[in-house]
């Protein structure tokens, strides 16, 4: 079985977290997620997260603490989603891969229709970094 490493950013701002909605052309279209993307060969997870957020949203993040890893099996592949806490960023968010974003209280994130692999990330975040 092929394993794919993916990183996700739990971006904080003024006590809220950024959620991004997958656009219509994406896998799991319409679901909300923590933005990020695939880790390339030889790339560290924080470096991959910085690259992906720059490509997808035009921002450069301050990647801080590792949150947790979530695993999701999809047919013949295993997705390992590694969540990272991001305390800030430079630049202005410009959407290239998402249809919309919103800032949400961490306690309210689970009320959104999240991509399944993102649910364990917010649960671990709430346990480690509760406001």
UniProtKB/TrEMBL annotation:
It comes from the Bacteria. Its cofactor is Mg(2+). Residues 2-127 form the Nudix hydrolase domain. Keywords: Hydrolase, Magnesium. The keyword ATP-binding does not apply. The keyword Phosphoprotein does not apply. Pfam families: NUDIX (PF00293). InterPro entries: MutT-like, NUDIX_hydrolase_CS, NUDIX_hydrolase_dom. Belongs to the Nudix hydrolase family. NCBIfam families: PRK10546.1. This is Pyrimidine (Deoxy)nucleoside triphosphate diphosphatase. It comes from Rahnella ecdela.
């Amino acid at each position: 079985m092929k394993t794919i490493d993916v990183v996700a950013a739990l971006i904080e701002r003024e006590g809220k977290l950024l959620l991004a909605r997958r656009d219509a052309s994406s896998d799991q279209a319409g679901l909300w997620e923590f933005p990020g993307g695939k880790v390339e060969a030889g790339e560290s997870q924080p470096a991959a997260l910085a690259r992906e957020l720059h490509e997808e949203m035009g921002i450069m993040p301050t990647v801080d603490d590792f949150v947790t890893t979530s695993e999701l099996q999809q047919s013949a592949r295993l997705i390992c989603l590694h969540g990272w806490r991001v305390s800030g960023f430079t630049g202005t968010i410009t959407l290239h891969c998402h249809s919309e974003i919103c800032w949400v209280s961490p306690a309210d994130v689970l009320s959104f229709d999240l991509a399944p692999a993102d649910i364990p990330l917010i649960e671990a975040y709430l346990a480690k970094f509760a406001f």
